[in-house]
Amino acid sequence: MIFWGHSLKKGKISAFKWHKDILSLAFPVPSRNIQFLKAMVLILIIAILQWWDSLLPGYAQTIDSTFNGEVIVQINGRRPFGKEKDFEFNLALKGGTVREAKDGGKFKFPTAEEYKRSREEHSGQLIKKLEERLNRSNVTSLQHLADMEYNYDLEIYQLSKQLLPKYEVPIDTTRYRDIISRQDGAVVKHLNPKSLFANHQFSYALHHLGLYYKHLVDLETLAVYPLPFPEETTCRGYGNLTWSPNGKSFVLYEKGFLLMTDLPSRKILFQKRLENNIQHVAWSLDSKSIAILNSSYRIGVAPHELLFAFAGHPVPHNNFYLELIKINSGESMQFLIVKNIIYGRGRVHWKE
Predict the structure, then answer these.
(1) Which residue(s) pair with 89 in the sheet?
(2) Residue 275 has what DSSP assignment?
(3) Do 175 and 212 sit in the same domain of this protein?
(4) What's the angle, vertex CA 274, arms to CA 272 and CA 277, rounded to 5?
């Protein structure tokens, strides 16, 4: 009524002015509130898009194919506005077509303790094989390999003493051990079994020096061969090596680079660079095909994710793809498995 009285004094009474004054009194909407409202609407639209994108499943393409069998893709992560969970996709390659990837089943990724236990079991089995096959005629090459790694660790230790004298870290001597032959008592001194990653048949093993695989060990003769990897090869680490079921080939992968080598010829069958990051690689049971699980990456743009990004911790959103490759023919195909998994990690298996 104050606004109406103000209008009466000026002699400008009108129904339009009266309604306008009452609405202004009841619902004040200054310009800054309009800007705030626009921002809230934009945030709401982004949230809806995030939620809608999370509802769109990834489907395998229906495409003619000569691949057979069944592939299981397992992914850990969460969808937008959801909790962390484990996803499992069953991908049937039957009847010449690739069927829809269906989410189902329950699994758990191995814990750090289970992974450590697996490494210990592998090292124990490898030590037994070395003790059985070691003798005075084949001890030289393996001893040379052990000396190479031990001297490498000594150099790193001396370098750390010079660069960081206040933070001296002693050499972990517990990982080295002497291997004694059961045949004639020959000894390989200060060998690190955990640097050798053998196939299931314990016929070959790859040795990594530092972070990179450098040598191949024939576990039957204990002969050591340099690996014919190109200079730019960045494959490294225990988890990025996958042996074929027949033990005659292996795949090394790192980020978007993949390399396959044939044994015992020690020749590179092929190498491939992918646009996406490789998460995991699995062999078919007949050792004639491989399945590559890779993922694309984008930064989350939800309001809270933008705050994390500005703080230097962007939230990754992953789309997961599966690529199948035949070794002999080079035939390949790739299709989408699932979209928009936050902090996603995955692995793939060729079903038995």
Answers:
(1) 73, 103
(2) S
(3) yes
(4) 125
Handedness of CA 223, 212, 227, 269 (dihedral sign): positive
156 and 255 in one domain? yes
Please indicate, yes or no, whether residues 41 and 100 belong to a single structural domain of this protein: no
C-alpha distance from residue 315 to each of 58, 85, 116, 133, 297 (Å): 21, 17, 29, 51, 10
- Beta strands per DSSP E along the chain: 69-78, 85-94, 97-98, 102-103, 177-180, 187-191, 196-198, 204-209, 212-218, 223-226, 241-243, 249-254, 257-262, 267-273, 277-283, 289-299, 316-326, 332-350
Same domain, 129 and 22: no
Q: What are the pLDDT digits (tens) for 65-89?
A: 677 788 888 998 888 877 888 888 8
Q: Tell me the two tokens of residue 133.
A: 């096959």
C-alpha neighbours within 13 Å on the C-beta side of residue 79: 16
pLDDT digits (tens, 9 = 90+) for 81-125: 778 888 888 887 765 566 666 676 677 777 888 888 988 899 899
Query: Residue 34 is part of which domain span?
Result: 2-47
What is the share, in percent, of the chain residues with pLDDT greater than 90? 27
Which pTM does this prediction carry? 0.77
Q: How many other C-beta atoms can be found within 10 angstroms of the C-beta atom of residue 152?
A: 12
How far apart (Å, rounded) are the C-alpha atoms in residues 31 and 35? 6
More confident residue, 283 or 267: 283
Residue labelled with tokens 């992918």: 274
| Helical H segments across the chain, by residue range | 2-9, 15-26, 31-55, 112-133, 139-163, 303-310
Query: Is the peptide bond between 57 and the residue preceding it cis, with omega within 30 degrees of 0?
Result: no
CA-only gyration radius of the chain, Å: 31
For the residues 163-189, what does the mean pLDDT come to?
Answer: 83
Report d(CA 278, CA 320) in Å as an integer: 10
